[in-house]
Amino acid sequence: MKRLGREYDKLETLNLFSLLPLDQQLTINDPERKISFFARLGSGLELALKSESTLHGIRVQAMFQLMVASFGKVSLIKQEDSGECYHSSDEPIQVPDFRVVQADGKPLLVETKNHCKLSAPFSVRERDLDALVLYSTLLRTPLKVAIYWARWNTWTLNKPDIFERDGRRARVEFMDALATSHMADLGDLMIGTKSPLMLRLPAAMDKPRSINSEGELQIHLAGWELYCAGKRLEDEVEKLIAFYMMLYGKWQDSGPGAELDSDGLPTAILYSFEPEERHAGQGFEIIGSLSSMFSAFYNSVTLEEGRVANFAHYDDPSKLAPIIPPDYKGKALPLWRLIQQPNVEKSSD
Q1: Less packed terminus of the chain by CB within 10 Å, N or C?
Q2: pLDDT of 267-316, one tens digit each?
Q3: Residue 142 is part of which domain span?
Protein backbone atom coordinates (compact mmCIF):
# COMPACT_ATOMS: atom_id res chain seq x y z
CA MET A 1 0.00 0.00 0.00
CA LYS A 2 1.15 3.54 -0.72
CA ARG A 3 0.40 6.80 1.00
CA LEU A 4 -1.84 9.23 -0.85
CA GLY A 5 0.21 12.39 -1.33
CA ARG A 6 -1.23 15.66 -0.03
CA GLU A 7 0.16 19.18 0.34
CA TYR A 8 0.04 19.16 4.14
CA ASP A 9 2.13 22.28 4.57
CA LYS A 10 -0.25 24.31 2.41
CA LEU A 11 -3.71 22.74 2.49
CA GLU A 12 -3.77 21.47 6.09
CA THR A 13 -2.38 24.76 7.40
CA LEU A 14 -5.00 26.70 5.44
CA ASN A 15 -7.72 24.36 6.66
CA LEU A 16 -6.67 24.91 10.27
CA PHE A 17 -6.50 28.66 9.64
CA SER A 18 -10.12 28.60 8.46
CA LEU A 19 -11.32 26.48 11.41
CA LEU A 20 -9.76 28.30 14.37
CA PRO A 21 -12.18 30.79 15.97
CA LEU A 22 -10.22 33.94 15.16
CA ASP A 23 -11.64 37.41 14.68
CA GLN A 24 -13.98 36.90 11.72
CA GLN A 25 -14.22 40.63 11.13
CA LEU A 26 -10.66 40.63 9.91
CA THR A 27 -9.91 39.46 6.38
CA ILE A 28 -7.78 36.38 5.86
CA ASN A 29 -4.89 38.55 4.69
CA ASP A 30 -5.03 40.94 7.64
CA PRO A 31 -1.67 40.86 9.50
CA GLU A 32 -3.42 40.87 12.90
CA ARG A 33 -5.35 37.73 11.99
CA LYS A 34 -2.16 35.99 10.90
CA ILE A 35 -0.37 36.98 14.10
CA SER A 36 -3.29 35.71 16.16
CA PHE A 37 -3.26 32.43 14.22
CA PHE A 38 0.45 31.80 14.80
CA ALA A 39 0.08 32.63 18.49
CA ARG A 40 -2.80 30.13 18.85
CA LEU A 41 -0.83 27.57 16.88
CA GLY A 42 2.22 27.94 19.11
CA SER A 43 0.32 27.77 22.40
CA GLY A 44 -1.68 24.75 21.21
CA LEU A 45 1.48 22.94 20.17
CA GLU A 46 3.15 23.66 23.51
CA LEU A 47 0.17 22.26 25.41
CA ALA A 48 0.11 19.13 23.27
CA LEU A 49 3.86 18.51 23.62
CA LYS A 50 3.56 18.71 27.42
CA SER A 51 0.83 16.05 27.53
CA GLU A 52 2.34 12.56 27.41
CA SER A 53 -1.10 10.96 27.17
CA THR A 54 -1.92 13.08 24.11
CA LEU A 55 1.43 12.31 22.49
CA HIS A 56 1.06 8.57 23.10
CA GLY A 57 -2.48 8.65 21.77
CA ILE A 58 -1.41 10.31 18.52
CA ARG A 59 1.60 8.00 18.25
CA VAL A 60 -0.52 4.87 18.68
CA GLN A 61 -2.96 6.11 16.02
CA ALA A 62 -0.08 6.57 13.58
CA MET A 63 1.29 3.14 14.53
CA PHE A 64 -2.04 1.45 13.86
CA GLN A 65 -2.49 3.05 10.45
CA LEU A 66 1.03 2.17 9.29
CA MET A 67 0.78 -1.32 10.76
CA VAL A 68 -2.46 -2.16 8.97
CA ALA A 69 -1.09 -0.70 5.74
CA SER A 70 2.05 -2.82 6.11
CA PHE A 71 -0.03 -6.01 6.33
CA GLY A 72 -1.11 -5.41 2.75
CA LYS A 73 -4.51 -7.02 3.37
CA VAL A 74 -6.97 -4.12 3.38
CA SER A 75 -7.78 -2.04 0.30
CA LEU A 76 -7.78 1.32 2.09
CA ILE A 77 -7.26 2.87 5.49
CA LYS A 78 -8.03 6.56 5.94
CA GLN A 79 -8.18 8.98 8.83
CA GLU A 80 -11.85 9.61 9.59
CA ASP A 81 -11.76 12.15 12.42
CA SER A 82 -10.62 15.21 10.48
CA GLY A 83 -12.50 18.14 9.03
CA GLU A 84 -15.88 19.58 9.98
CA CYS A 85 -18.85 17.38 10.84
CA TYR A 86 -22.50 18.50 11.15
CA HIS A 87 -25.27 16.25 12.42
CA SER A 88 -28.93 16.47 13.39
CA SER A 89 -28.93 13.86 16.16
CA ASP A 90 -30.20 14.87 19.60
CA GLU A 91 -27.56 12.56 21.09
CA PRO A 92 -23.83 13.35 21.04
CA ILE A 93 -21.76 11.62 18.39
CA GLN A 94 -18.03 11.00 18.23
CA VAL A 95 -16.07 10.38 15.05
CA PRO A 96 -13.77 7.32 15.21
CA ASP A 97 -10.17 7.51 14.10
CA PHE A 98 -10.17 5.49 10.87
CA ARG A 99 -12.25 4.21 7.99
CA VAL A 100 -11.08 0.89 6.57
CA VAL A 101 -12.09 -0.96 3.43
CA GLN A 102 -11.38 -4.63 4.05
CA ALA A 103 -10.15 -7.11 1.48
CA ASP A 104 -13.70 -8.32 0.82
CA GLY A 105 -14.86 -4.75 0.15
CA LYS A 106 -16.72 -4.37 3.43
CA PRO A 107 -16.24 -1.01 5.20
CA LEU A 108 -15.25 -0.71 8.83
CA LEU A 109 -14.80 2.14 11.31
CA VAL A 110 -12.01 1.81 13.88
CA GLU A 111 -11.37 3.73 17.08
CA THR A 112 -7.82 3.26 18.43
CA LYS A 113 -6.99 3.28 22.13
CA ASN A 114 -3.73 3.07 24.06
CA HIS A 115 -3.76 1.13 27.35
CA CYS A 116 -0.64 1.16 29.53
CA LYS A 117 -1.78 -0.33 32.84
CA LEU A 118 -0.49 -3.84 33.47
CA SER A 119 -3.23 -5.39 35.60
CA ALA A 120 -6.28 -3.15 35.12
CA PRO A 121 -8.84 -3.78 32.37
CA PHE A 122 -9.21 -1.26 29.59
CA SER A 123 -12.11 1.09 30.20
CA VAL A 124 -13.84 3.95 28.42
CA ARG A 125 -16.71 6.19 29.41
CA GLU A 126 -19.99 4.69 28.31
CA ARG A 127 -21.16 7.95 26.81
CA ASP A 128 -18.03 8.12 24.65
CA LEU A 129 -18.48 4.56 23.42
CA ASP A 130 -22.17 5.22 22.73
CA ALA A 131 -21.25 8.36 20.78
CA LEU A 132 -18.90 6.31 18.59
CA VAL A 133 -21.56 3.65 18.05
CA LEU A 134 -24.12 6.30 17.09
CA TYR A 135 -21.78 7.67 14.43
CA SER A 136 -21.28 4.19 13.00
CA THR A 137 -25.05 3.62 13.04
CA LEU A 138 -25.65 6.83 11.11
CA LEU A 139 -23.13 5.70 8.50
CA ARG A 140 -24.48 2.12 8.52
CA THR A 141 -20.91 0.94 9.00
CA PRO A 142 -19.78 -1.41 11.79
CA LEU A 143 -17.44 -0.12 14.46
CA LYS A 144 -14.60 -1.92 16.20
CA VAL A 145 -12.24 -0.71 18.91
CA ALA A 146 -8.51 -1.33 18.40
CA ILE A 147 -6.71 -1.45 21.75
CA TYR A 148 -2.94 -1.38 22.05
CA TRP A 149 -2.06 -3.18 25.28
CA ALA A 150 1.32 -1.51 25.63
CA ARG A 151 2.64 -3.65 28.50
CA TRP A 152 2.12 -6.78 26.42
CA ASN A 153 2.93 -5.14 23.07
CA THR A 154 -0.33 -6.63 21.78
CA TRP A 155 -3.16 -5.32 19.62
CA THR A 156 -6.78 -6.46 19.81
CA LEU A 157 -9.71 -5.44 17.62
CA ASN A 158 -13.08 -5.82 19.33
CA LYS A 159 -16.76 -5.18 18.84
CA PRO A 160 -18.22 -2.66 21.30
CA ASP A 161 -20.73 -5.16 22.68
CA ILE A 162 -18.08 -7.29 24.41
CA PHE A 163 -17.48 -4.47 26.90
CA GLU A 164 -18.97 -4.91 30.38
CA ARG A 165 -20.97 -1.86 31.49
CA ASP A 166 -21.72 -0.54 34.97
CA GLY A 167 -23.73 2.53 34.02
CA ARG A 168 -20.71 4.80 33.88
CA ARG A 169 -17.78 2.99 32.26
CA ALA A 170 -17.43 0.16 29.77
CA ARG A 171 -14.61 -2.32 30.48
CA VAL A 172 -12.89 -5.29 28.91
CA GLU A 173 -10.21 -7.55 30.40
CA PHE A 174 -7.09 -8.32 28.37
CA MET A 175 -7.78 -12.05 28.00
CA ASP A 176 -11.39 -11.42 26.95
CA ALA A 177 -10.25 -8.85 24.39
CA LEU A 178 -7.61 -11.27 23.10
CA ALA A 179 -10.04 -14.16 22.79
CA THR A 180 -12.58 -12.09 20.86
CA SER A 181 -10.14 -10.14 18.70
CA HIS A 182 -10.77 -9.58 14.98
CA MET A 183 -7.20 -8.50 14.14
CA ALA A 184 -7.00 -11.28 11.55
CA ASP A 185 -9.65 -9.43 9.51
CA LEU A 186 -7.04 -6.71 8.92
CA GLY A 187 -4.31 -9.20 7.96
CA ASP A 188 -2.68 -10.01 11.29
CA LEU A 189 -1.10 -13.45 11.68
CA MET A 190 0.75 -15.43 14.33
CA ILE A 191 4.12 -16.50 12.92
CA GLY A 192 6.01 -19.65 13.88
CA THR A 193 9.29 -21.14 12.74
CA LYS A 194 11.95 -23.61 13.83
CA SER A 195 14.41 -22.74 16.57
CA PRO A 196 16.99 -21.40 16.91
CA LEU A 197 17.44 -18.42 14.61
CA MET A 198 21.11 -17.51 14.53
CA LEU A 199 23.23 -14.63 13.33
CA ARG A 200 26.81 -15.74 12.66
CA LEU A 201 29.59 -13.18 12.21
CA PRO A 202 32.55 -15.13 10.80
CA ALA A 203 36.12 -14.05 11.45
CA ALA A 204 38.51 -13.14 8.66
CA MET A 205 40.80 -16.16 8.74
CA ASP A 206 43.70 -14.26 7.18
CA LYS A 207 43.70 -11.71 10.02
CA PRO A 208 44.98 -12.08 13.60
CA ARG A 209 42.58 -13.88 15.98
CA SER A 210 42.90 -14.26 19.74
CA ILE A 211 40.98 -14.84 22.98
CA ASN A 212 42.40 -13.98 26.41
CA SER A 213 41.84 -15.54 29.83
CA GLU A 214 38.90 -13.19 30.48
CA GLY A 215 37.12 -14.33 27.33
CA GLU A 216 37.77 -11.15 25.34
CA LEU A 217 37.91 -11.79 21.60
CA GLN A 218 40.10 -10.04 19.07
CA ILE A 219 38.94 -10.72 15.51
CA HIS A 220 38.20 -8.99 12.22
CA LEU A 221 34.72 -9.69 10.87
CA ALA A 222 34.40 -11.07 7.36
CA GLY A 223 30.65 -10.76 6.80
CA TRP A 224 27.45 -12.17 8.26
CA GLU A 225 25.31 -15.28 7.89
CA LEU A 226 21.83 -16.27 9.06
CA TYR A 227 20.68 -19.73 10.09
CA CYS A 228 17.39 -21.37 10.99
CA ALA A 229 17.64 -24.59 13.01
CA GLY A 230 21.19 -25.06 11.72
CA LYS A 231 20.40 -24.44 8.03
CA ARG A 232 22.04 -21.45 6.37
CA LEU A 233 19.71 -19.00 4.67
CA GLU A 234 20.68 -18.05 1.12
CA ASP A 235 17.46 -16.55 -0.23
CA GLU A 236 17.34 -12.76 0.19
CA VAL A 237 13.63 -12.72 1.11
CA GLU A 238 14.22 -15.38 3.75
CA LYS A 239 17.15 -13.47 5.21
CA LEU A 240 15.09 -10.29 5.40
CA ILE A 241 12.21 -12.08 7.15
CA ALA A 242 14.52 -13.91 9.56
CA PHE A 243 16.48 -10.79 10.52
CA TYR A 244 13.27 -8.87 11.13
CA MET A 245 11.95 -11.65 13.38
CA MET A 246 15.21 -11.76 15.31
CA LEU A 247 15.10 -8.02 15.96
CA TYR A 248 11.41 -7.65 16.78
CA GLY A 249 10.10 -11.11 17.65
CA LYS A 250 9.63 -12.33 21.22
CA TRP A 251 12.39 -14.95 21.27
CA GLN A 252 15.25 -14.30 23.66
CA ASP A 253 18.76 -13.41 22.52
CA SER A 254 21.29 -15.56 24.35
CA GLY A 255 23.89 -12.83 23.87
CA PRO A 256 27.12 -12.96 21.92
CA GLY A 257 28.86 -16.30 22.01
CA ALA A 258 32.13 -17.48 20.51
CA GLU A 259 32.75 -20.24 18.00
CA LEU A 260 36.22 -21.70 18.45
CA ASP A 261 38.41 -23.91 16.31
CA SER A 262 40.43 -26.91 17.48
CA ASP A 263 43.24 -24.57 18.58
CA GLY A 264 40.86 -22.55 20.77
CA LEU A 265 40.92 -19.53 18.47
CA PRO A 266 37.69 -17.71 17.63
CA THR A 267 36.21 -18.38 14.20
CA ALA A 268 32.93 -16.48 14.62
CA ILE A 269 30.68 -14.51 16.95
CA LEU A 270 27.22 -16.03 17.39
CA TYR A 271 23.87 -14.48 18.35
CA SER A 272 21.22 -17.12 18.95
CA PHE A 273 17.50 -16.43 19.37
CA GLU A 274 15.33 -19.06 21.04
CA PRO A 275 11.91 -19.24 22.75
CA GLU A 276 11.75 -19.32 26.53
CA GLU A 277 9.49 -22.38 26.40
CA ARG A 278 9.26 -25.21 23.89
CA HIS A 279 6.33 -27.43 22.96
CA ALA A 280 7.52 -30.98 22.47
CA GLY A 281 6.45 -32.62 19.23
CA GLN A 282 5.06 -29.42 17.72
CA GLY A 283 7.93 -28.88 15.29
CA PHE A 284 7.90 -25.09 15.53
CA GLU A 285 7.51 -22.26 18.03
CA ILE A 286 5.62 -18.99 17.79
CA ILE A 287 7.98 -16.02 17.50
CA GLY A 288 5.23 -13.37 17.50
CA SER A 289 2.42 -11.84 15.51
CA LEU A 290 2.81 -9.46 12.59
CA SER A 291 1.23 -6.74 14.75
CA SER A 292 3.50 -7.30 17.76
CA MET A 293 6.64 -7.31 15.62
CA PHE A 294 5.61 -4.18 13.74
CA SER A 295 4.77 -2.44 17.04
CA ALA A 296 8.17 -3.38 18.46
CA PHE A 297 9.78 -1.87 15.37
CA TYR A 298 7.65 1.28 15.54
CA ASN A 299 8.38 1.70 19.26
CA SER A 300 12.11 1.52 18.50
CA VAL A 301 11.94 4.51 16.15
CA THR A 302 9.45 6.68 18.06
CA LEU A 303 10.27 6.18 21.76
CA GLU A 304 13.25 7.17 23.89
CA GLU A 305 13.23 5.79 27.44
CA GLY A 306 9.47 5.32 27.21
CA ARG A 307 8.76 8.89 26.14
CA VAL A 308 7.52 9.95 22.73
CA ALA A 309 10.43 11.29 20.69
CA ASN A 310 9.04 11.20 17.18
CA PHE A 311 6.10 10.41 14.92
CA ALA A 312 7.10 8.21 12.01
CA HIS A 313 5.22 8.38 8.70
CA TYR A 314 6.26 6.60 5.54
CA ASP A 315 5.12 6.80 1.93
CA ASP A 316 5.26 3.01 1.46
CA PRO A 317 4.63 1.17 4.77
CA SER A 318 5.13 -2.21 3.07
CA LYS A 319 8.87 -1.44 3.03
CA LEU A 320 8.97 -1.15 6.82
CA ALA A 321 8.34 -4.82 7.46
CA PRO A 322 8.92 -7.83 5.22
CA ILE A 323 5.60 -8.94 3.76
CA ILE A 324 5.48 -12.72 3.64
CA PRO A 325 4.34 -13.57 0.11
CA PRO A 326 1.02 -15.48 0.01
CA ASP A 327 2.66 -18.32 -1.92
CA TYR A 328 5.74 -18.45 0.31
CA LYS A 329 6.84 -22.05 0.84
CA GLY A 330 10.22 -21.60 2.45
CA LYS A 331 13.55 -23.11 1.52
CA ALA A 332 15.68 -23.01 4.65
CA LEU A 333 13.24 -20.87 6.66
CA PRO A 334 9.98 -22.78 7.20
CA LEU A 335 7.13 -20.58 8.44
CA TRP A 336 3.84 -21.45 10.09
CA ARG A 337 1.13 -18.81 9.69
CA LEU A 338 -1.68 -19.08 12.22
CA ILE A 339 -4.93 -17.16 11.83
CA GLN A 340 -6.74 -16.51 15.11
CA GLN A 341 -10.51 -16.51 14.81
CA PRO A 342 -12.53 -14.77 17.57
CA ASN A 343 -14.40 -16.87 20.07
CA VAL A 344 -18.21 -16.74 20.11
CA GLU A 345 -19.13 -13.27 21.30
CA LYS A 346 -22.12 -11.82 23.07
CA SER A 347 -23.42 -10.16 19.94
CA SER A 348 -25.71 -12.07 17.65
CA ASP A 349 -24.40 -10.48 14.45
Answers
A1: C
A2: 999 999 999 988 888 899 999 999 999 999 999 989 998 898 887 777 77
A3: 8-186
Query: Residues with Cβ < 8 Å from 190, sequence gap 6 or more?
Result: 286, 288, 289, 337, 338, 339, 340
Quick one: 50 and 168 in the same domain? yes
Task: Give the closest residue to 338 by CA, choosing from 153, 184, 157, 191.
Answer: 191
Contact 229, 325 (CB under 8 A): no
Q: Which of 186, 204, 225 is the last residue of a domain?
A: 186
Do residue 101 and residue 145 come from a single domain?
Answer: yes
> How does pLDDT run across 48-94, given as a tens digit for each residue?
888 888 898 999 999 999 999 989 899 999 999 887 888 998 899 99
Same-domain check for residues 161 and 202: no
> What does the longest C-alpha to C-alpha distance in the chain come to?
87
Residue 28: pLDDT over 90: no
Q: Are 232 and 238 spatial neighbours (Cβ–Cβ below 8 Å)?
A: no
Element housing 290 (H / E): helix 290-302
Degrees to nearest 5, angle at CA 286 with 284 and 292: 160
pTM of structure: 0.87
Same domain, 149 and 228: no
CA distance 130 to 94: 8
Mean of the pLDDT values across residues 177-182?
96
Which amino acid would we find at residue 31? P
Same structural domain for residues 124 and 215?
Answer: no
